[in-house]
Each structure stands twice: as structure tokens, then as C-alpha cells.
Amino acid sequence: MEQPPEDWRRVRTAVLRDAIGIGVATGAYALSFGAISTTSGLSVVQTCALSLVMFSGASQYALVGVLGSGGAALAAAATAVLLGTRNALYGLRLAPLLDVHGVRKVVAAQLVIDESTAMSLGRPSDRANRLGFWATGISVFILWNLGTLIGALGAHALSDPRKVGLDAAAPAAFLALLAPRVRSRTAVGVALLAAAIAIGSVPFVPVGGPVLVAALVAIVVGAVTRAAPSEPPADLPASGPA
Amino acid sequence: MWLAILAGSAGCYALKLAGLSVPRRVLGNARVGHISNMLPVALLATLVAVQTFTSGTHLGVDARVGGLGAAFVAVLLRAPFLVVVALAVGVTALLRLAH
């Protein structure tokens, strides 16, 4: 289903406007990532490298969160990867739409995130959906990295980030990321159970360990329960930034 | 630090590429979907709890708890992401000042 050229121009303008708007919003939220990352002890270069090569908000926050509290490198990496599993499911949904191969596929894969997936849905044509994916992916990529750099430099200039309360920024960010995903009773149960087990295990496992204990809880509970009707499909992004 | 950054990034990229490459029937079933919905819930809830109540391997309560309380109220009121984070930071800083 393709439209005549004048319709396409209007659709294209609307898609590009949305893509830039979402880029600006995520760029603003990259400021907080940059600040949290340097507060956690990463250098400005390491912080920017994360936004360039990992490019997945929740995974990046988790990685610097675990490292910042003194966790082992592999525990931090594993937490980030576990949080990135949803991107694989987004890819499943995007593959037939994008139909990319070779170099374009290598580039497209890096841009598979919540925002680009959300913007590739529900447009009047596949062409518009594809544009939504690419325009949003590129716009968010540029502004996410720019925001990270500014946030990192800003927090780096502070002599004692704890004094201004920046050590509370990371858990608050996790709370805001969690909220849109807790829609069913099972999800609330998993959240409370995981938090309780994690707190209980803090004195007994190395730093970063409680997060991996929580992942096991999720896998076990996920395997023995069924998705509630209110649970969003796993290959659709939860509303809100991530 | 670099080990975590590179290993984590490689893993995240591999997952993104796998989604675009793997046939749908391999990962497309409902149970895999449900588990991958529960994973971020458990991980994020744990990160909230651990980063609010611990320093290293010690449990404890400090000004962060007040900041997170404010953030929780903001989340209930559906405040935007940056407002939630800024409130937590501001309240924590004020509580530390008051001490």
C-alpha cells in the first residue's frame, strides 16, 4: 500500500518531526546517564564509549550501576546483556519490515532499541514504518551520544557528586524504567520477590551478585507462570524511556 | 572497566543482530516472551533495592531512601523520567544538607 507523492511528503514530514522530538527527549535523558556514569567512577571516555557501542539505555544504566557499587566486570556485563534480551525480540518483529542484508543489517542491528521499534509501528504504510525506524534510530543515536558527553563533562566537573545527591540518581532512574513494565500481578510479585531476595543476599554474595540472583528468579517465575492478559507483548516496547 | 564495557556491548549487539537474523519460530514462542518480560522487571527492581539500601556489601539506610521515596511518589503520579530523577537527587541533597 503506497500513497501518491504529495501524501508521502506529508507522511515523511510527520515521521521526521516525531523522530527528532524523540531524539531530543532521549538526549535530555542521556544527560542523566552521562552524569550517573561518571559519578559511578567511569571516565568521560568510557562513558561515551558505552553510549556509542552499547547504545541501549537500561543496559547502560545497569552496567554503570553495578560497576559503581564495586561489582565485578563480568557481573556488570552479564546484567547489561540480560537487560538487552528484549532487543532480540524487537529484531524478530523488525526483520520482515526492514528486510536488510549485509552492511545495512550490521548498521540496523545497532539501532534496534525501544524508541526505533516503537516508531516503526502503526504508520500508514511499510515505507513510512521503515522511515520511522531509521529516522528515529539515527536521531536518537546522535542526540543520545551528545547528551551523554555533556552530562559526563558536567558531572565530572563536580568535586563531590554525593553531596548534591547524585548517588540517588541511578536507583531513581531504575525506578522510572521499572514503572511502565509492572502492569500485571505477576510482574508486581516478581519485582517484590526479586528485590527482597536481592536485599537478603547482599551480605552473602559479591557486589553485583544479587542482580544475577534476581535474573534467576525472573527466569524461574517466568517459566512457571503464564503471561497475564494485561501484559504487553514482549516484542513491543513498554511505554516510557528505556 | 573496559572489560565490562566491551563484553557487555558485544553481548548487547549480538542480541540485536540475532533478532534480525534468527528465524521467528526459534525465539517467537509465548514462554520466551513472558520470561523476557519478567527479566527486566526483576533486574530493575533489584537494582532499585540494592542501590538504595546498600554501600558495598553493607545494608543501611541513608539520605538516598528519602530521595527514592520522593521518586516513588513521582512515579505514581506519572511524572516524566527526568522529573523523577531530579526529585530523587534534590531530596537526597537536601536531607544531607539538613544533617
Q: How many distinct folded domains of chain A?
A: 2
* SS summary, helix count of chain B: 5
First and last CA, distance of chain A? 32 Å
Helices and strands of chain B, in order, run as HHHEEHH
Outline the low-pLDDT stretches of chain A: none
Number of domains of chain B: 2
Which tags fit this structure?
heterodimer, A: 242 residues, mainly alpha, 2 domains, B: 99 residues, two-stranded antiparallel ribbon, 5 helices, 2 strands, 81% helix, elongated
Give the gist of this structure.
Chain A is an all-alpha fold. Chain A is 70% helix and 0% strand. Chain B folds into two domains: 1-56; 61-99, no CATH class.
Description:
The complex is a heterodimer of chains A (242) and B (99). Chain A is mostly helical and 242 residues long. Chain A folds into two domains: 5-166, no CATH class; 182-233, no CATH class. Helix content of chain A is 70%, strand content 0%. Chain A contains eleven helices and no strands. Chain A has helices spanning 5-39, 44-53, 57-68, 73-83, 85-98, 102-110, 114-118, 126-156, 169-178, 185-201, 209-224. In chain A, α3 (57-68) runs antiparallel to α9 (169-178). The longest helix of chain A has 35 residues, at 5-39. In chain A, 54% of the residues are buried. With 99 residues, chain B is mainly alpha-helical. Chain B folds into two domains: 1-56; 61-99, no CATH class. In chain B, 81% of the residues lie in helices and 4% in strands. A two-stranded antiparallel sheet of chain B has the order 1-2. The chains are: A mainly alpha (242), B mainly alpha (99). The interface between A and B is large, with 109 and 74 residues.
